[in-house]
Amino acid sequence: MSLQELQELERSYAIPTYVRNPVQFVRGSGVNLYDEQGNEYLDFLAGIGVLNVGHCHPRVIKAVTEQAAQLTHVTNLYYTEPAMRLSKALSDSSLGGKVFLCNSGAEANEAAIKLARRAKPGGDIVVLRDGFHGRTYGALSATPQEAKQAPFAPLVPGFITVPKDPAAITAAVTDITAAVLLEPIQGESGVQMISDELLLAARKACDKHGAALIFDEVQTGMGRTGSMWAYEQTPVIPDALTSAKALGGGLPIGALITGARLADVFQPGDHGSTFAGGPVACVAALEAIAICGDPELLRAVVELGERLTGSLAEVPFVASVRGRGLLVGVDLLEGVSAVEIARRALLEQRLVINATGPQTLRFEPPLTVTGQQIDEAVSRLSKLRP
């Protein structure tokens, strides 16, 4: 179908929750996307951090194809090898506890909230200002952004928002706190870095009051920052973490991973999901973990991230750059619209990026990106004139 035909179908049949760019992608390979006319684009968004392994990685495609020909679904009332193998792989790669498989980042965070409240019934959940944890009701209630929350009030009670300040965390966590839930880097808010001092204060306060420290690694995990999980580059180990986005190598899957303390809190019947742990998504995730956890790839992510941030800092209309690994945020000069720059980058330079705020761009290419592709992407961006 042509782009115009798809737009007509959208107007007639799709609930208008998205503002789509006027491009139809029909194929992807590695760091490249292709529209219906065969034009090639550099993808430096990776489906908002989903395609860490790149588009259509051959190992993921092979595993999915073979599994789909054997078994696509049964339910969690029975065993499948891919789900059990994936649970072990996730535990071994991180906190060493147990795993609840689900279908998305929001679902993983919902499970984490329930786990914290099961461990400490009635307890509050402390979250950071500017955080983002999803759009379902519990996850939305943990996302203190007025524009996202206000239309859907009243929200789930028991969430306390604090500034990104160690003293504020220390004061907010009390004996009735069930958990502190935070992103080690706030991706949806423009790649906002969280200080080690804040993380240490959260860890100390949680230990003092018997609360759980939960890291939302939906965007920062799976090698994105140069280690398999972002917490590995901090002085803090959380009690649980959540994963999704890149976990499935392009397929929808999420996970809640616990450490030892919370491993046996949930009991049979406490939580569940019809599609969770489906064999097709699980074999994709197993391949994605193997690819993203490769030490050589992770070293390259650190080096390429430094190359990307250094190059972006030289772009004339860029004010500042921050990030870790290949999760990079860029603030533009006063008066330069990030939304307009992202739109023009797509339509004029065939570079896929996105705006996370009025003056902030986000870059997160596949981890398989090359130095040459980074240089080309920055060159294309530099050709724009605000």
List the helices and strands and how they pair.
Blueprint: H1 3-13, E1 25-29, E2 32-35, E3 40-43, H2 46-49, H3 58-68, H4 81-93, E4 99-102, H5 105-119, E5 124-128, H6 137-141, H7 146-149, E6 159-162, H8 166-172, E7 177-182, E8 185-186, E9 192-193, H9 196-209, E10 212-216, E11 240-243, E12 254-258, H10 279-292, H11 295-312, E13 318-324, E14 327-332, H12 338-349, E15 351-352, E16 354-357, E17 360-363, H13 371-382
Parallel strand pairs: 3-15, 5-6, 5-7, 7-10, 10-11
Antiparallel strand pairs: 1-2, 2-3, 4-12, 8-9, 11-12, 13-14, 14-17, 16-17
Helix pairs in contact: 3-10, 4-10, 8-9, 11-13
Count, helices: 13
The count of domains is 2
**H/E series:** HEEEHHHEHEHHEHEEEHEEEHHEEHEEEH
Strand content: 15-25%
Which structural class matches the secondary elements? alpha/beta
How many E strands?
Answer: 17
The CATH homologous superfamily of the largest domain corresponds to: Type I PLP-dependent aspartate aminotransferase-like (Major domain)
CATH architecture term of the largest domain:
3-Layer(aba) Sandwich
Shape: globular
Largest sheet: 7 strands, mixed
Mean pLDDT: 98
CA-based gyration radius: 21 Å
Helical percentage: 25-40%
Unreliable spans are none
**Biggest sheet: strand arrangement:** 4-12-11-10-7-5-6
**CATH fold-level name of the largest domain:** Aspartate Aminotransferase, domain 2
Rounded to the nearest angstrom, the distance between the terminal CA atoms is 34 Å
CATH class designation of the largest domain = Alpha Beta
